[in-house]
UniProtKB/TrEMBL annotation, chain A:
<dbReference type="InterPro" id="IPR004143">
    <property type="entry name" value="BPL_LPL_catalytic"/>
</dbReference>
<dbReference type="InterPro" id="IPR053264">
    <property type="entry name" value="Lipoate-ligase_2_inactive"/>
</dbReference>
<dbReference type="Pfam" id="PF21948">
    <property type="entry name" value="LplA-B_cat"/>
</dbReference>
<protein>
    <recommendedName>
        <fullName>BPL/LPL catalytic domain-containing protein</fullName>
    </recommendedName>
</protein>
<dbReference type="InterPro" id="IPR045864">
    <property type="entry name" value="aa-tRNA-synth_II/BPL/LPL"/>
</dbReference>
<feature type="domain" description="BPL/LPL catalytic">
    <location>
        <begin position="26"/>
        <end position="212"/>
    </location>
</feature>
Automatic annotation (TrEMBL), chain B:
<dbReference type="InterPro" id="IPR000089">
    <property type="entry name" value="Biotin_lipoyl"/>
</dbReference>
<keyword id="KW-0809">Transit peptide</keyword>
<dbReference type="InterPro" id="IPR017453">
    <property type="entry name" value="GCV_H_sub"/>
</dbReference>
<feature type="domain" description="Lipoyl-binding">
    <location>
        <begin position="52"/>
        <end position="134"/>
    </location>
</feature>
<protein>
    <recommendedName>
        <fullName>Glycine cleavage system H protein</fullName>
    </recommendedName>
</protein>
<keyword id="KW-0450">Lipoyl</keyword>
<dbReference type="InterPro" id="IPR011053">
    <property type="entry name" value="Single_hybrid_motif"/>
</dbReference>
<dbReference type="Pfam" id="PF01597">
    <property type="entry name" value="GCV_H"/>
</dbReference>
<keyword id="KW-0496">Mitochondrion</keyword>
Amino acid sequence: MNLMRFKGLPILKQLHIEEQLLRTSSENWCIINDGTNDPTIVMGVSGKPAELLEIESVLRDQVPVIRRFTGGGTVIVDPGTIFVTFICNKEAVPDLQPYPRPIMSWSSSLYSKVFQGIGDFHLRENDYVFGNHKFGGNAQSITKTKWIHHTSFLWDFDVRNMAYLKLPKRAPAYRSARGHLDFICRLKDYMSRSTFIDKTVEAARTQFLLRSFELGTIENCSETEFRPSTRFLTNEELEAAAVAGQ
Amino acid sequence: MALRMWASSTANALKISCASKPYLSLSRCFSTVLDGLKYAESHEWVKHEGSVATIGITDHAQDHLGEVVFVELPEPGGSVSKGKGFGAVESVKATSDVNSPISGEIVEVNSKLSEAPGLINSSPYEEGWMIKVKPSSSSELESLMGSKEYTKFCEEEDASH
């Protein structure tokens, strides 16, 4: 498995790399991005802006909004978010069926090693929680021959940013209609950034032979004309969504 | 519907230990498989009637994917190629590619799925159909699995995981 580590890589760039590797690479990858640069809203593939975002505030404050290629919900990411991604061939994990729930379960078993003895960690519905407070959100995409599972970890977050997100209509039962600040918690209250990243790499090493990979190597070798679907939504699209209520 | 048992409860029932692989999902293929359809290894079905072939995903697939909340489909008039993706379904937190078992021209797309994606779960072989295609090659249809072969394929796939 190739390991790529970034710090502060823009989230759009990260998602473009991931989408390209999922669609064009035959190798296995682990990508860790220690924080992204600017606060950015990232919606899942089918996200409807009017349902998920306070569009007026988003437009007023010019917060970028991305529609990513994987499923799942909406997050607002910033320098306090740590991203960990696994992109695997279907044979990479022995005995693992390439469907959402087995992949989710496999990922939680990996992170159980990271958080052993810390904070009552477990996978709750499809979220990583300490107790009943979410600190990690997951999303996946599954193709004929590969799958990607990526997670955004709330090592820290700015309370003000949560105000851009509405309470989602589709929410896990354990959320129990709690507002954002009652529902989520900070990983920084349990572990330092470097400890979390080091332990994650260590946990991955128990299953894969990791080799470090530089981004430049991918860009130099790329002979494909792959066009990612992940993109920013324009102001016009957001305004139209607000008017149409979608 | 397929019976699915998580590894730990199965381990208790069968008195085997699989604690080292808690992500095992042991299930047996009790999913519905219809006679008269053809099946791909990527769990799509084809119903060939006259000059048109209808395509969707199987009961086995929808059961393993979970509740479908969004379906991405192509436009009519486009084309599909055997083994290549033509759309996707979103379930749980995942998008999953749907691949065409045959090549041809798309003549109709199930527009009901945009408002009612759950039809794929409740009626995978009937109301949950995804696209209708004018096949470009009859040999591609013949190379697909029949119902008995697909049933065995599902059982072997589930047993090996």
